[in-house]
Amino acid sequence: MPVSETILPVLIGADMNCYTLARAFHEAYGVRSYAFGRWAMGDTMYSRLVRFTAVPDIDSADTLLRTVTDFAAAHADKTLVVMGCTDDYASLLMDVRDKLPANCIAPYITPELRDKLVSKADFYALCDKYGIPYPKTFCAEGPMDAAALSPEALGFAYPVIVKPSSSILYWKHPFDGMKKVYTAATPEEASAILAQIYGAGYPDIVILQDRIPGDDSFMHVLTAYCDKNNSVKMMCLGHVGLEEHTPKALGNHAAIITEYNEPLMTKLKAFLEDVGYTGFANFDIKYDSRDGSYRVFEINLRQGRSNYYVTGAGLNIARYVVEDRVLGSDLGPCVMNEKETFWHSVPRAVVYKYVKDPAFVEKARRLVREGRETTSFGCGYDLRWNPRRFAYYLVHMQRYFKKFKTYYK
């Protein structure tokens, strides 16, 4: 029986991550995915690739488990591949993975390993153990006076980066002016940011970090897949040229060119295998021109929002999960991508205008000419003879011009 008749992708989320994961499943097996989330989003609206259902309280473990269990019972003849598309949903699936029906597969680590990795403070302790460079870091456990946040107290100079150790907990305590990441120019600014975050009820550590010099084009991203036996089978490194700059999307990748860096990939491969990882891992990394190192910011315990840069490079992420977990195939030795492709989620013109690295722009233009370009939403199957989806796509792309004009500094 064809794989397309035996599997059913069930995605928890509704954003670009969800859409491109559904696209990967469709391109690999011709199947339509089913998605569940708290509310509908334009990224997955009017799509032939994914059928979305709103479940307002699916961000609770009980509701998530009940939703998937009921859906699995209604499709008892299928193997459900259940994947989360946000940190929160992926974490919930780790909590309930052992309670899912027998016809469900959720390719995730245990809650115990999650708790060691999801906290940036704990993750950096592991980085020390494995010799993985990361930015100089100071941990705040509550509001602090400016005097206690002096450069001497932190161990590094201002300006500094300020961000929550747990993004999952952070977004559950909203406040006006909330940002994904903050920059503080002085101890007084750092103290005010801490007061805002903790004043909203956030209960965990806040990280203050040395700000590594360099614009968006110093950023890198690495996606890896570890099989059910904790062996890394795929790694794809991307050189980021541009990120989004709106307050709540700050740091989301907007343009990536894949590249090869064996020493970096080998070090992170050893780390993942040694800790017993399984499923997708996504690392945010920045090149530090001061010493030539690649400093890891964090590990995301799921495929990244920009995951189509991997599929577009010829490493379809859906195939890795299905061949490993559904078909039980031997995936063979680890594939470290060496193919060069240009991925972007914003219009080309935005990339060409706002990327500050001329070499990146020149390479992107060359890859476009050579036909080695991929985009998240430019799916011909989904746009052809689908006027509502096509209209959304045009409006969505056009909005980026205003967003970058407004927020890019």
Automatic annotation (TrEMBL):
Domain of life assignment: Bacteria
Swiss-Prot/TrEMBL keywords: ATP-binding, Nucleotide-binding
One Gene Ontology term of the molecular function aspect: ATP binding
ATP-grasp domain boundaries: 124-326
PROSITE patterns in UniProt: ATP_GRASP
Keyword Nucleotide-binding: yes
This protein's name: ATP-grasp domain-containing protein
Taxonomic source organism: Ruthenibacterium lactatiformans
